[in-house]
Amino acid sequence: MKFTKLRLLGFKSFVEPMEFFIEPGLTGVVGPNGCGKSNLVEALRWVMGENSYKNMRASGMDDVIFAGSNQRPARNTAEVTVYLDNSTRTAPAGFNDADALEITRRIERESGSSYRINGKDARARDVQLLFADASTGSRSPSLVGQGRIGEIISQKPTQRRGLLEEAAGISGLHSRRHEAELR
Ligand code: ATP
Ligand code: MG
């Protein structure tokens, strides 16, 4: 699976619909302070199921919705869609019947989030499981936030094992076992 595009609408500073193409060779995003570089990475983490608003640098999940500016009123919804190329058919079982995957998360002020996978309603858990094996996902070690390096250095051994399991792509197994035990 490969990310190909991110679409944002009303997410943080991205009030107008915005499409960000993730093409081979992309190595960096540059721009002045406050232009939205970190917001872009947060949008990716959010659509993959991040459920901690603190990890979104917010004081509540509704804070990811465009809050308004001098020129524009606040919005009541935010939506992020991530597009994936699955032509190699490496998506986990249950998600692997199409060449492309489209995952959308939408939030409405005071009503929480909803998810869709290829246009069908899905649970946050489904989205998290979809990404759990791909060494990606909202808690992926490949998304290193500010202050995270220091945190990793001072982690306890069991926490650090969790990080290695993510990197090795086996944390999806644990997630699915946990899911099976709950049923
Ligand atoms: P730096 O180079 O300093 O790291 P950056 O490009 O990473 O900057 P971000 O942190 O992504 O910038 O963007 C910060 C901007 O996003 C701020 O101007 C902030 O006001 C704006 N912002 C964050 N949340 C919202 C929101 N809910 N509504 C409107 N604007 C928001
Ligand atoms: Mg930044």
TrEMBL record:
Residues annotated for ATP binding in this entry: P32, N33, G34, C35, G36, K37, S38, N39
Subcellular location: Cytoplasm
Assembly description: Homodimer.
Domain characteristics, as noted in the entry: Contains large globular domains required for ATP hydrolysis at each terminus and a third globular domain forming a flexible hinge near the middle of the molecule. These domains are separated by coiled-coil structures.
Family, similarity comment: Belongs to the SMC family.
Cited function: Required for chromosome condensation and partitioning.
UniProt-recorded name of the protein: Chromosome partition protein Smc
Native species: Cohaesibacter celericrescens
Gene giving rise to this polypeptide: smc
